[in-house]
Amino acid sequence: xxxxxxxxxxxxxxxEVEVVTLPGTNGSFQILKDHAPIVSTLGKxxxxxxxxxxxxxxxxxxxxxNKVLVLAEALL
Length: 76
Hints:
By secondary structure, the protein is mainly beta. Helix content is 0%, strand content 71%. The protein is globular and about 30 Å long.
């Protein structure tokens, strides 16, 4: 699946990943291939994309058709 991580300043990451772990506002959760469409708010924490880690300061995630779009407030 495709992951894009975007902040107001820049596109931080764009590429193919197998699994994404996100810091949801009510706890962390994972997105795998063929996940149902979802829109969720994100809290401050670590976003894991396969073996890469990004620390974000909240934001929103949208998942649809094996595309994960993370609109992060900022990277920490």
